[in-house]
Design a protein that fits this description.
The protein has 76 residues and is mostly helical. Helices cover 97% and strands 0% of the residues. The termini are far apart. The relative contact order is 0.05. GO terms for molecular function: microtubule binding. It comes from Noccaea caerulescens (Alpine penny-cress). This is Protein ENDOSPERM DEFECTIVE 1.
């Protein structure tokens, strides 16, 4: 029985170290997951802003063309 206790005592520090490392891994993993989710949200917002920018640019180009056409027909 004493041999078993000695063997368990030998592995106890390793077990405690492993528990600490697993706890740290869980904390880091949770933090990384939150960061990935934040990046996904930022990417969606960026995509939406890009689409809006493209739309507004096309509207501006169309308006500019319309103004140029009106000027050319008015000056003739």
């Amino acid at each position: 029985m004493e041999g078993i206790v000695q063997n368990i005592g030998h592995f106890l520090p390793k077990t405690q170290e492993m528990e600490t490392l697993m706890s740290e891994l869980a904390r880091v993993s949770s933090s990384e997951k939150a960061s990935v989710e934040d990046c996904g949200i930022a990417l969606l917002k960026t995509h939406s802003s890009h689409i809006e920018e493209c739309y507004l640019t096309s509207q501006l180009i169309q308006h500019h063309k319309k103004c140029v056409l009106q000027e050319s027909t008015t000056s003739v």
